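Supplementary notes for students who missed Thursday's class. We covered one full example, reproduced here. Read the sequence, then the structure, then the short commentary at the end.
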Amino acid sequence: MIQTLFGPVPQETGLFDRLKQSVQKTREGLVTRLEEVFAGDKEIDADLLEELEQVLLGPIWESEPPPRSWSWPGSAWIAS
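Structure (token representation):
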């Protein structure tokens, strides 16, 4: 903080500090969603894998949709 005749002036947060805050929020959100997916005694099946796929890849697809032909063996998601 900078001290002036009129009192302290808070400094603006820098790019690195804002980046660290954003990464922290992303990490917390991801961990929370993963904990929800794996909560309880769940058997690993197609539904659980699809839910995990949505948690991990959903944010990527929201910002940039996958190509129409994107799919992989065993994937429940297929672009139309």
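Commentary. Residues 13-63 form one domain. The chain has a mean pLDDT of 77. If anything here is unclear, bring it to office hours.
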